[in-house]
Amino acid sequence: MGKRKERGFDVLASLHWPVCLVLGLIGFIGIQYGIGWLWGSSSHPFLAGFAKAVSMGLDRPLAWFALFVCSAAAFASFLDRRRRRRLLESQTGMDSLSSMDWRSFERLAGEAFRRQGYAVKETGQGGADGGIDLELSKDGQITLVQCKQWRSQRVGVQTVREMYGILVDRGAAAVKIVALGHYTSDAAAFARGKRIELVDGHALLATIKGIQARKEPDGALDHPLVFVGGLAVCLLFAVAPPKQQPERPAIVPNASLPSSPAPRQSTIATQGAPAIRTASTPVQAAASPSQKVYKADPPMSNEELRDWEKRNREAMKILEKTTPELETAPTH
After folding, report:
1. Which positions fall inside the Restriction endonuclease type IV Mrr domain (predicted)?
2. What CATH code is carried by the domain that includes residue 147?
3. Which of 37, 70, 127, 318 is deepest in the core (most CB within 10 A)?
4. In which domain, by residue range, is 139 found?
5. 264-285 pLDDT, tens digit each
């Protein structure tokens, strides 16, 4: 099989679907809220222009597009996960193994290893440029796998030698060759005593039968409701408006009001003279520190007015008696 060229969407869909949703949400937030902040002050004309275009409303369509692509990749990953489980559970014998194409055979082998506790990565490098179809990870060890879906041809020693060279070059822990048919005696002899495991069709079928006998229930990530719930949560985060920080009210310092000068009251000390109260003189009331409030006296009654005039006349008489006359300056 020749090397497969995977597109970016295929690489994204090969991840677990929760990872795709998280990447979509991160991309949505980063595009809508991060580009303008990150590139807005850039000196590069292209980046600054792009940030300006984003700030004018281009960010929202791009953000939703990134979220849509990641959500579609998550859906494809979810369907592929369920398809692999059904592929393994539907195998009944060598005839069903022989009837599938090479791509399905590779997926079946990957699912069988996944059910045995391996983390499986499909490299898509099967062929003359590497010969690695799967990379298995378990307990920190890397195992390389090549799948050969040859119905009539046996796997020869040349293929085993090539895989051993890759094992030494990559520094892997072991190599597994999974074939639908059998291996030549030379290939089996070369692999003996080395970190090479030759898996033929009957051994693969026995492994599949053992997995089917365990009747493992679907995991949480394989349940449709879990996927729909994860997608709904992701969309709710995207459509929820960002929290607006409450604006702090501007603190305006209290303007100092010019204090009006207190009315100057002249008190004339007299010997036993009663206090003189002018009817038009306002009385200052208690005021707040910022301003002064003045209140006028209530109007006097006729009796109070006559008493006030009488006391003024008496005070004037006392002033005339007690005030010395001014000497007239001599004229020259």
Report:
1. 98-206
2. 3.40.1350.10
3. 70
4. 97-216
5. 444 444 444 444 444 444 444 4
Chain CA centroid to CA 44, Å = 27
Alpha-carbon span 253 to 15, nearest angstrom: 59
Concatenated DSSP letters of 116-160: TT-EEEEEEE-STT--EEEEEEETTEEEEEEEE--SSSPB-HHHH
What angle in degrees, to the nearest 10, is found between the helix axes of 102-115 and 59-89? 80
Indicate the length of the chain as a whole number. 332
CA distance 28 to 60: 8
Same domain, 107 and 149: yes
Read off the pLDDT of residues 110-166 as tens digits, 9 standing for 90 and up.
999 999 999 998 886 554 444 789 999 999 999 999 999 887 788 999 999 999 999
What pTM value is reported for the model?
Answer: 0.59
**In this predicted model, what pLDDT tens digit does every residue of 294-309 receive, in sequence order?**
555 677 778 888 888 8
Higher pLDDT, 264 or 184: 184
Of 38, 58, 89, the residue at which a domain comes to its end is 89
d(CA 106, CA 112): 10
**Angle at the Cα of 242 (from 240 to 245), degrees rounded to 5?**
145
Last residue of a domain, one of 184, 216, 248: 216
- Is the per-residue pLDDT at 14 higher than 90? no
Q: What is the mean pLDDT of residues 208-237?
A: 85
Is 83 inside a domain boundary?
A: yes
Block residue for tokens 């960002």: 242
Q: Is residue 324 part of a domain?
A: no
308: its two tokens: 């006030």
Write the burial class of residue 241 (CB in 10 Å: 0-12 exposed, 13-18 middle, 19+ buried).
Answer: exposed
The amino acid present at 110, given as its one-letter code, is: G
Phi, psi of 184 (to 5 degrees): -75, 160
pLDDT in tens, 188-205: 999 999 999 999 999 999
- Do residues 116 and 209 share a domain? yes
